[in-house]
Amino acid sequence: MDMIDLRSDTVTKPTPEMRDAMAEAEVGDDVYMDDPTVNELQAKAAEMLGKEDSLFVPSGTMGNLIALMVHCQRGDEVILGDKSHIYLNEAGGFSALGGISSRPVMNQKDGTLALDDIRASIQSEDVHHTITKLICLENTQNICGGVPLSVEYINQVGKIAKENNLSLHIDGARIFNAATALNVNVKDLVAPADSVMFCLSKGLSSPVGSMIAGTKKFINRARHLRKMLGGGMRQVGVVASAGLISLDTMTKRLSDDHARAKKIFDGLKQVAGLVLEAQPQTNMIYFGIHPNIKLTDNQIVDEIKKYGVLVDWASSRRFRLVTHYWVDDVGVEKTIEAFKNVLK
After folding, report:
1. Which of 239, 308, 327, 340 is nearest to 8 (CA)?
2. Contact, 82 vs 111, CB < 8 A?
3. CATH class belonging to 14-251
4. CB-based burial label for 214 (10 Å; 0-12, 13-18, 19+)
5. What is the pTM (predicted TM-score) of this model?
6. Where are the domains of the chain?
7. Long-range contacts: 278-281, Cβ < 8 Å, 24+?
8. Which of 65, 179, 328, 344 is the 20 to 30 Å CA partner of 215?
9. What whole-number distance in Å separates Cα of residue 230 and Cα of residue 223?
10. Could you please report the per-residue DSSP string of 35-99?
11. How far is residue 134's CA from residue 129's CA, in Å, rounded to a whole number?
């Protein structure tokens, strides 16, 4: 049975075009900076984001960690959302490996950090305090519903950072989803940021890899830290070739994923026992399970799987479905019917 996998957009497999490109990729040694395919990918990513330079890294988690370690010294503090991926789902690397202190700020329902909360979290100069060095935003904001943060809001946070001599990092794992949803150029979404990370291996369907972008000085230091963290790669043009297709082709079709997320959302409105959250703006559908449903979360997962659909719960009695390249219109209908049958 061909499974419809809605657990995440990280489950995407390379497209046929990517597999062909990977087989034919021209390669070199990227630690020596002479892999032509990697160099092309890094130049393209930097240009698309409007930054001076970029660096190919094995994962988004490593990309974020490197960025935080460039911006902050041991004992410095970062302001970030209490529902952010960096704070909750990256194994505490910035603290364990970077010695960086965190100042979590409550994420609002729309994924933002309230501007006044950011201002109030900036440490005053006092020998008793940590030194605030960095603000981190996540766009799209996953746990808040895959919601995009607007250009206007990013600019407002950038202004606060600049006024207080702080850096701004954007965890843009799904920044192209945000740009698509807002119908803006991705350059405008990241213009105030000193650094940006985005993933090639989520909705952009590459098998592995992420990019971090910033100034040439930032990337030079990032390259050193990538090596320190074990992320220096050799003939990695084999996978960077898929990344080029991600940027050239897959960024242009994300609206299809968003449309299918809305179709699933509309179909699930007819399913008794589901408590739907806000209509999806990008490729994520979040919903709760009504107390009348006696099945446990894991039992729901197991029963849905019998209908050829893979899902997962995000937290207790809260589920997240994620659309991507490998979920077509047939998969949308199959998903809706599976929930109707299991929760009838």
Report:
1. 327
2. no
3. alpha beta
4. buried
5. 0.96
6. 14-251, 253-342
7. 278/145, 278/147, 280/145, 280/146, 281/140, 281/145, 281/146, 281/147, 281/148, 281/181
8. 179
9. 11
10. -HHHHHHHHHHHHHHT-SEEEEES-HHHHHHHHHHHH--TTEEEEEETT-HHHHSSTTHHHHTT-
11. 15
Residue-wise pLDDT for 5-38, tens only, equals 999 999 999 999 999 999 999 999 999 999 999 9
Give the separation between CA 242 and CA 244, rounded to whole angstroms. Answer: 5
Q: Which residue has the tokens 């996998």?
A: 5
- Convert the pLDDT of each residue in 289-299 to its tens digit: 999 999 999 99
Q: What CATH superfamily classification does 253-342 receive?
A: Aspartate Aminotransferase, domain 1 (3.90.1150.10)
What number of CA atoms fall less than 13 Å from residue 32's CA on the CB side? 8
Cβ proximity of 258 and 280 under 8 Å: yes
Show the tokens assigned to 11.
């489950």
Model confidence band, residue 1 (pLDDT cutoffs 50, 70, 90): low
